[in-house]
């Protein structure tokens, strides 16, 4: 921040772009904080409030003489003191139609007493930028769901190009309308919270993912060597994009011949053939995306 004799109220719109926020500029007569966010949510009035705190740091500055201005679109506008407290000022900026961003800086005039004389001085800040977001996610329809469940998102400005991520994993996304999206919970770890976001980087919220409950029919198997039987694996909600892997292991590998179990995308169940191998007695152990393990007794005889 610079101080200089008051010679002009104009200044080229040049400067170092700073991160928008409450930035304290020190080493001068005034303490200046920009209280304005760098992102505004679009509103029908297209009016956005820019707020500033300009407070004297030394006694030589006459408090009542502080006169902040905002310089935006090449024009200088006085800022008015708010009811939020002393030395807090604001300006309501009407964004021109078709614009989604803007840049501005603050110009502050004040009186400074030195050696019995009152001098008028001027201070200005660096350049700030802001954006107006014409879309925003409001909330998840629910705060918890199992793997494979369909979850809605309520918001504004959605497009068919939007997609949902659960943590970093893509989820099957359905565009409902400009105010509604939905997605299917992908096979992420159950029993904990996951961050839901859009592919644009906008965070929507946190979803508690419950373990997927798997049902297996039959509850036990008794086979002869070379005999074939059908097993059905099902879950309560449609499988996510790419399908839902059902992890099946056994403690008697030579006795069990069966393919990998994957419930297809959008389906709730799948049937697989199990063939008896070498004689043995043990179990099939079944889990899916953090679900509790199910033990299916199996025996193979000659």
Describe what is shown at a glance.
By secondary structure, the chain is an all-beta fold. It has strands at residues 2-5, 30-34, 39-41, 47-56, 67-72, 75-78, 80-81, 88-94, 101-114, 117-124, 128-133, 136-140, 144-146, 150-156, 164-166, 169-177, 180-184, 192-198, 203-210, 215-217, 221-224, 228-234, 244-250, 256-257, 261-263, 269-276, 280-287, 294-301.
Identify the notable features of this structure and list them briefly.
7-stranded mixed β-sheet; Immunoglobulin-like; 3 domains; 302 residues; 0% helix; rod-shaped
Please tell me about this protein's structure.
- By secondary structure, the chain is an all-beta fold.
- It folds into three domains: 2-133, Immunoglobulins (Immunoglobulin-like, Sandwich); 136-210, Sandwich (Immunoglobulin-like), CATH 2.60.40.10; 215-301, Immunoglobulin-like (Sandwich), CATH 2.60.40.
- Helix content is 0%, strand content 55%.
- It has no helices and 28 strands.
- The chain has an eight-stranded mixed beta sheet, with no helix packed on it.
- Strand 15 (164-166) and strand 16 form a beta hairpin.
- The relative contact order is 0.12.
Distance between the termini: 90 Å
Count of distinct structural domains: 3
The CATH architecture category of the largest domain equals: Sandwich
What series of H and E elements makes up the topology? EEEEEEEEEEEEEEEEEEEEEEEEEEEE
Tell how many strands the DSSP assignment holds: 28
Structural class: mainly beta
- Which residue ranges are poorly predicted, with pLDDT under 50 across at least 5 consecutive positions? 1-27
CATH class of the largest domain: Mainly Beta
Number of helices: 0
Biggest beta-sheet profile: 8 strands, mixed
The outline comes out as rod-shaped
Mean pLDDT: 85
CATH superfamily of the largest domain: Immunoglobulins
Radius of gyration: 32 Å
Which fold name fills CATH's third level, the topology of the largest domain?
Immunoglobulin-like
